[in-house]
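Dear H.,

Thanks for agreeing to be a second pair of eyes. The structure we're designing against is below in token form, covering all 176 positions.
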């Protein structure tokens, strides 16, 4: 059985005082930064128009959201974090191994809804998201950098209606 941390390490953003709380009580997860939701999976695939366009075995499914002010440096930083984030179990059942350590697959799927503003009302706002052309450019950059850096990388198709299937392992899911 995997052991989850009982408290956050010193210096972790969740252990710090809530001085960054906004007046409405919501804490910003990030300011002007590319968002990635990672899920540890036993397998995952993405289908477009009935065709499987990407699939992996054990590894990480990354749902990637691009915001207006995002750039290549932020993409590089997020990719490095995704590849090195220790969410896989070691021999003692603790989350001490990264995707790189286990040689697992990385499936990257664009998901603009991650950058939605959901703080007010009952309908999400997308004004913070990158324009489609810029979002696609940065998504393609991210995928290309991942393929240069990591051995097993698959991806969805930007802007397509995708059907994503996964077997979440844990479940283990983190918003980076």
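And this is the sequence the design step returned. I haven't edited it by hand at all.
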């Amino acid at each position: 059985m995997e052991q989850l941390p009982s408290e956050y390490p010193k210096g972790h953003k969740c252990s710090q005082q809530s001085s960054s709380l906004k007046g409405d009580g919501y804490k910003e997860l990030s300011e002007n930064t590319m968002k990635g939701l990672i899920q540890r999976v036993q397998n995952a695939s993405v289908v477009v128009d009935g065709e499987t366009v990407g699939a992996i075995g054990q590894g990480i499914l990354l749902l990637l959201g691009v915001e207006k002010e995002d750039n290549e440096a932020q993409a590089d930083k997020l990719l490095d974090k995704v590849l090195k984030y220790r969410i896989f179990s070691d021999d003692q059942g603790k989350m001490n191994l990264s995707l790189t350590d286990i040689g697992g697959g990385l499936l990257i799927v664009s998901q603009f809804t991650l950058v939605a503003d959901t703080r007010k009302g009952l309908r999400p706002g997308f004004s913070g998201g990158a324009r489609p052309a810029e979002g696609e450019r940065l998504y393609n950059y991210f995928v290309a950098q991942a393929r240069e850096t990591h051995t097993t990388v698959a991806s969805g198709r930007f802007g397509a209606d995708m059907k994503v299937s996964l077997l979440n392992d844990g479940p283990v899911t983190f918003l980076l």
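Two observations from my side: The two ends are 24 Å apart (CA to CA). The helical segments are 72-84, 99-102, 132-149.

Warmly,
E.
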